[in-house]
């Protein structure tokens, strides 16, 4: 049985190491310690930011007002929802094709089933340049096909829109008979 403190045993163990092994051990320890501090610093550098940009916030306000005028039971308006949260597929490849994509706005019923996806094609939607535009067009195509396959309607709103037309489209979607009557009366 060895006597002495833990420190004494460590020192006596280190003194038996060749100098090159001691330097290597010390170097590995220093690198591990530096990495631990670096990870801790990087992990703490998050900042909160709005879920919606300014133009999406304006549209959200318009949609909120329009949904409030729909007949009961009114759907709930959600924003920035991943397609994988409300669409599923038996095919893993098909699911992964849509899982990371998100819709700008989603209307759901009382059981949180999707009843309408709203995509806003804002000023930055297509990016700048030919490659960015092709990529956005392809993403939109995948989303349209997935929604059509699931039977979930899609409403696409261009960068330039009128609040009145959004309200009318929502009413026509959720209360077709009411919309026809108001069109006949007007």
Descriptive account of the structure:
The protein is 56% helix and 15% strand. It is of the alpha+beta class and 186 residues long. It folds into two domains: 6-43; 54-185, Endonuclease, Chain A, CATH 3.40.960.
Please name the defining characteristics of this protein.
alpha+beta; Endonuclease, Chain A; 8 helices
Order of strands, widest sheet: 1-2-3-4
Uncertain residue segments: 178-182
First-residue to last-residue Cα separation: 101 Å
What profile does the largest beta sheet have?
A: 4 strands, mixed
Number of domains: 2
CATH topology of the largest domain: the name is: Endonuclease, Chain A
Short summary of the structure?
The chain is an alpha+beta fold and 186 residues long. The chain is built from eight helices and four strands; from the N terminus they run H-H-H-E-H-H-E-E-H-E-H-H.
